[in-house]
Structures are given as structure tokens and as C-alpha cells.
Amino acid sequence: MREMPLSPDPAIEHRQLNPWIHMWLHPRITIQQVIDTDPTRLVILIAMITGISESLNRAGLRDYGDGLSISAIVGLAVFLGPIGGIIRLYLFGFLIRWTGTWLRGEADGEEIRAAYAWSSVPIVWSLCLWIPQIFTFGEELFTSETPMIDADPFLSYQLIGFGLVEFVVGVWSFFIFLHALGQVQGFSAWKALLNLVLAALVVLVPLGLIFGSFWFVS
What is the rounded distance in angstroms from the CA atom of residue 198 to the CA atom of residue 174? Predict the structure, then answer.
């Protein structure tokens, strides 16, 4: 694979980096080291943990607590989240590799999945935030009605603070992925973004045509 400039910091270029730490600020050189040593390293595990985090986020956004207990929500996230995480890893990996070939991307499936998984390092770390949130807000973290939080401004500010941190982590993880994907594909970050847009269009355009045809017929 053709290598691109790995890092603007020559001080770390020849060091063995810890991907759990250095993916945050040096995604290109870090993912290159992962690829050069073992592109399958912990990829499945990271995808599973990320799936748990995404399941909990979905439960909060969709108010699953209106019909389920908090223990049931956490249990389902721990059980089903990893399955969804693995499915997304392989599905998105396939789509990104496929559309990446249109742009002359150089990565194989293992490298794409490694970039996808290791870019989720911030999300894996942010899973720790769910522990204080569950203890602080309880079931209202997952319900549409939140009388306890509404009655206490301090709790409301805390909830907003946790939400802002999770939003920043999600955005930063996306930018990390653009650089990691760009590294393995031989792209700039902007071209990696185009790769993602094409992968999304491959899914969304057919779905739009199908639902559009049903709407037109009805």
C-alpha cells in the first residue's frame, strides 16, 4: 500500500504508539502501525463495545424506558449491542471498500475494518460515562417524562453537560475515521469523506426509490 505522510509530528514517527491513546490526535500514523503489525487486532472486540454504546444511546433517544425497566435496557444493550456492532463493522466495511474502489482506494477489507473499529476509540472510552449517568439520572435517562430532572436545575445542567461531551466525542470520532480511512485508502481526509458519501448513497438512493414508488402508488 502506498504510504502517505503519517504525522506532522516527527517526534512520534518512529515510536511504537498505543492506539488506545494516540488514535485521538495521531490517527494516521497510529492506524498505519496497527495495519503493519496486525490489522485484525481487537477489531471485533471494539466493534462489540461500540455496539453496546450505540444501543444505549438509541434507548435514550427513543425513550425505551417508557416500556422497559432500566435493567432490561442495559441487559438488551449488553446482549444485542455487540451483535449489531459486528454487523455494522462488516456491512459498512464492505460498502466503504466497494465505493472506495471507484476512487481507486488501495485498502482491503481487513484494513477498512481496522480503520473503522479503531476510529471508535473515543466512543469506547465514552462508555464509561454511562456509569455516572445511570446512577445520577436512573430510569429518567431513558424515559420521555423526566419529573426529577425537570425539578432540579442542577440535574438538568448535568444532563446537558453529559450530552455535550458525548456529542463532541462522536464528532471527533468521525474526524478520526476520515483520517484513518484516508491513510489506509491512500486518500486525503476530504477524499475519504467522498468515499463515505458514496457508500451512504448506495444505500439511501435505492431505499428512496422504493419508498417513493410506494408513496406514488398509494
Answer: 16
Between CA 172 and CA 119 the distance in angstroms is: 9
The C-alpha atoms of residue 76 and residue 70 are separated, in whole angstroms, by 10
DSSP 173-202: HHHHHHHHHHHHHT--HHHHHHHHHHHHHH
14 vs 199, residue with greater confidence: 199
Fill in the amino acid letter for 180: A
Query: And the C-alpha cell for 146?
Result: 423526566
- Convert the pLDDT of each residue in 26-71 to its tens digit: 999 999 999 999 999 999 999 999 999 999 999 999 999 999 999 9
At 107, the amino acid letter reads A
Instruction: Answer for the pair 189, 179: CB distance below 8 angstroms, yes or no.
Output: yes
The type of residue at 19 is P
- Average confidence (pLDDT) over 107-116: 96
